[in-house]
């Protein structure tokens, strides 16, 4: 191998290092975005399940309720939603702003019960400067069930 071939080989190694340095941040951001989107979709599925759990808790005919009303009080529904979310949401120790809204068309069998859960998702993996621009997103899940 002569000196010209050695120089060419060393130049190729330098070019590969420069290309890698240019592509690495884009690749890292792409991987973080995929993970972030996956966690967001998982949390959306969990609040959807939580709204179903709350609605199921609210429609079940209950003989042990206060004031002869045959459905659980709203605090029991909110407690069911909160308990479900505390055990399953991915927050990495961050604060989870969870709001539950309950509405009924009536108190009789066959009336609709609506449980709406709103959760503010703050980005977990995307660097802080990008997250400050976007500010997070509100995830909403709503379940409507007929009272038994």
3D architecture notes:
- Strand 1 (97-104) and strand 2 form a beta hairpin.
- The protein has helices at 3-59, 74-88, 128-134, and strands at residues 97-104, 112-121, 137-146.
- Helices cover 53% and strands 19% of the residues.
- It is an alpha+beta fold.
- Helix 1 (3-59) runs antiparallel to helix 2.
- Strands 1-2-3 form a three-stranded antiparallel sheet, with helices on one face.
- The protein has one domain (3-146).
- The radius of gyration is 26 Å and the shape is rod-shaped.
- The chain has three helices and three strands.
- The termini are far apart.
Q: What is the string of helix and strand elements?
A: HHEEHE
Q: Which structural class do you get from the secondary structure elements?
A: alpha+beta
The major β-sheet equals: 3 strands, antiparallel
β-strand amount? 15-25%
Number of domains: 1
| Helical segment count | 3
Arithmetic mean pLDDT: 82
**Biggest sheet: strands side by side, in what order?**
1-2-3
Low-confidence stretches: none
Rg is 26 Å
Helix content: 40-55%
* N-C termini distance: 87 Å
Number of strands: 3
Approximate shape: rod-shaped
């Amino acid at each position: 191998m002569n000196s010209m071939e050695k120089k060419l080989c060393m130049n190729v190694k330098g070019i590969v290092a420069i290309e890698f340095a240019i592509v690495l941040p884009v690749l890292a951001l792409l991987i973080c975005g995929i993970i972030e989107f996956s966690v967001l979709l998982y949390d959306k599925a969990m609040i959807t399940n939580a709204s179903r759990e709350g609605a199921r808790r609210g429609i079940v005919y209950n003989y042990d309720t206060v004031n002869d009303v045959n459905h659980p009080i709203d605090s029991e529904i909110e407690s069911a939603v909160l308990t479900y979310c505390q055990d399953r949401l991915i927050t990495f120790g961050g604060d989870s702003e969870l709001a539950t809204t309950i509405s009924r068309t009536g108190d009789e069998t066959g009336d609709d019960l609506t449980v709406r859960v709103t959760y503010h998702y703050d980005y977990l993996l995307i660097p802080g400067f990008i997250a400050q621009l976007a500010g997070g997103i509100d995830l909403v899940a709503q379940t409507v069930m007929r009272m038994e």
